[in-house]
Amino acid sequence: MGDVDMEAWLEVAGEELERYPPDVVTSACRELLRSEKWTPSVHELILRCDQLVRYRRLLRQALERAPR
Length: 68
Description:
About 80% of the residues lie in helices and about 0% in strands. By secondary structure, it is mostly helical. The longest helix has 24 residues, at about 40-65.
């Protein structure tokens, strides 16, 4: 990717990923960058962020239901 392409990609990705907590986006980016040969698509990042957020939500619900 050239500099202009990278800037455009980062702008689009940033706008799409704003709804997620920063640490979720960081984790998703690190995981995909380490496991993929090419730069992940914004769609792939969104899917991974959704998985991480869903996992957190389920974990929180389980903790709230657990006996004290």
